[in-house]
Design brief:
Layout (H helix, E strand, L loop, with lengths): L15 H28 L4 H9 L18 H14 L1 H20 L2 H13 L4 E4 L15 E5 L2 E12 L6 E7 L8 E7 L5 E3 L13 E12 L3 E2 L5 H37 L1 E2 L2 E2 L4 H29 L5 H26 L10 H11 L6 H13 L5
Parallel strand pairs: 1-4
Antiparallel strand pairs: 2-3, 3-7, 4-5, 5-8, 6-7, 9-10
Length: 390
Amino acid sequence: MPDHAPQPVERRLPTEEARELLAVVREIAAREIAPRAAEEEAAGRFPRELFTLLSASGLLGLPYDSAYGGGDQPYAVYLQVLEELAAARLTVALGVSVHTLSCHALAAYGSQEQRAARLPAMLGGGLLGAYCLSEPSSGSDAAALRTRAVRDGDTWVLDGTKAWITHGGIADFYTVMARTGEPGPKGITAFLVPGDAAGLSAAAPERKMGMKGSPTAQVRLDGVRIPDERRIGAEGQGFTIALAALDSGRLGIAACSVGLAQAALDAAVPYARERRQFGRPIADFQGLRFLLADMATRIEAGRALYLEAARLRDEGRPFGKQAAMAKLFCSDAAMRVATDAVQVLGGYGYTADFPVERFLREAKMLQIVEGTNQIQRVVIARHLAGPESR
């Protein structure tokens, strides 16, 4: 079978700068990312050198202010960059999305002095971030987190364990939500913790069914001392900060989902054209043609949905409901498209000789991360019908 290179997606971009940016991303993806993706995922290797390259290329701070080293790009452009990266290798796109999420608290809620002192290195200095909200006993119920931060003069002492942390153990900085006050969401505060802080350590990476190149680990804070100037926002504002970041992060997962689904379709279509049974290509059979048509339709619908949510965000309008819808629909679509791609390839699709089995394993993660799809339905329903009765 021929090598199935991804087919470029036709995009409507707002500026010539954005078109040039996407061209650069496609070049990096084709030259540096895609050729090694299967081998490195099988080996469980995280491509840190690629993130150094992406940082040097200005791709780790695209939606942030250029005054602090960002790229001044609309979210609608940044998300299409993520989609292109995900089509080449999900580990890389997810890493960029998580890093962007990790910078959000400081960029949106930090003081001018904090942003000036720390954001340039975070956005373009080769650093890699992690976002620490979930814990072993609080995933979907994030407001029940137990990690504590106790004030001691001009410093804070952090103790607790965070779970399911992408880049856990390798990140240069961690955006950590910790309890500083009463139980519930009002007692949570955000902190920026350096990766080399004394008392911070990581457990062995989780053994996952997919995304093996992306380290996910528990992060332990044992008497970690940080100065008060590393507190982000006001005391008790951390849960608000966390939720605001997650709204944007969900759009990142939606874009990653569409990129993965596009890669699955790009593998399935050429195979269907080349594979012959009963004397003709299997793409001639109506049952399979309809399968491909449904796959392509789900991808286009998902792309339109995440871009509409991104445009609302870029206009400064509420987008939380649309972000939850995009994450829900796009990750479900990725799972369905990846499953159908395996079916198109038949027995070959179930082998590691073709990438679609990896896409299927990776797609499952997208339905869970940044809030399970059941939680997305809760969020959407609250926007429609109001909070649940207690």
